[in-house]
Task: structure prediction
Amino acid sequence: MRITCPHCGARDVQEFTYLGDASPSRPDGLEATEAAMFDYVYQRENPAGRHRELWYHGAGCHAWLTVTRDTRTHAIEAVEPTKRPKAGTAA
Result:
């Protein structure tokens, strides 16, 4: 599988590290309940089909990327830089 990094171009998947689902938002660790943290860490969907995932380009530009791909065929639909709001700011 090849991922087209928006900064470096098409690269082999071995240059990247997979983090997981891009949709969950991490609860505030100081304010979150134990149940909320458990759900964030362990309760993940495993969809067949279109899915948004986080990938880290560790052997390239060191950017976090959001990759939209089909988990059945591994066909990549989109790759974009990941933008996450800083803690304590409005989303």
In short: DSSP finds one helix and six strands in the chain. Helices lie at 34-42. The longest strand covers residues 50-56. The radius of gyration is 15 Å.
